[in-house]
Amino acid sequence: MRGCGVRRLAAALNNAAHAGQAPVLHKRRLVWSQGARPGLTEAGYNTPQEEAGSVPRRASRPRRGRLQSCSRSQGLRYDGGPQWVIDVDRDRFVPLWDGLARKLGIGDEPRSAVGRELVEAYSSEDRHYHGVSHILTMLDAIERFEARFQDPDAARLAAFFHDVVYLPGRTDNEQRSAERLASLLAEVEDAQVIDRACELIMATGEHRMSGNPSVDLFIDVDMSILAASWPEYSKYAEGVMREYTPASGDQAYRKGRVELFLNPILARGSVFVTSTYAPLDAAAMTNLATEREILASGGRFDVL
């Protein structure tokens, strides 16, 4: 684990459970300064079109910035490497989990225990992209598109668990993540919300159109990083590379990433399967093609 963030978040979970009250949620309590990290849009990330000012955006949402600590509520901070890590973030990850768990009727003890497991999983040192920031970005998008999901709480639950088991190179991560969710939350009375969440998690393994609007939107939310502006995309690409190369080696990763991921999507000509995200396909194709060139040339990604 990095620093003492996990221990402090675990304490926050215990405090929330013992207080007997749902915490007050705030959408964003982050301090932004001029820097390199793009802000978030309706789709999750700034796209190149938005960076150029051709796409309308909410005036209240920050344009750009580097996440820094806040004296009242420290949020996510960038530590100089490719991973976004938790410092102290009672206003984000922990309360979002706690609020959802209370809504689902999960008792204090299991709610706290599951929360600790989630924090530990997504804050692990080997999570360079599939960590806390990715989960929070998905939760933000689900909140914005809540009316389009058949069961928004199932979507939120799936977001929390969809990468809880993440071992690069394995093909059963989604299956194991869904099984972990079902095992940990077996006592939830609403079995349908568990089943729906597991269905959403399993769909992220293929990222193919299912015909189910909620499933299709969820996988587009998961893939929204592919249409990010290049600085954000390069952090993602470098992060995934750092997750995989310790096990596979550099050359094997480059070859596998190009042949098994980039080439099939580029040949298909599209990433997204919903009308909500389809306008971002062109940006995604540009990013994927650029990544392929960098990997093929033996280069690395510029990450601030």
UniProtKB/TrEMBL annotation:
InterPro entries: HD_phosphohydro (IPR009218). Residues 38-66 are annotated as: Disordered. Coiled coil: none annotated. Transmembrane segments: none annotated. PANTHER family: HD PHOSPHOHYDROLASE FAMILY PROTEIN-RELATED, PTHR21174. This is HD domain-containing protein. The lineage of its organism: Bacteria, Pseudomonadati, Planctomycetota, Planctomycetia, Isosphaerales.
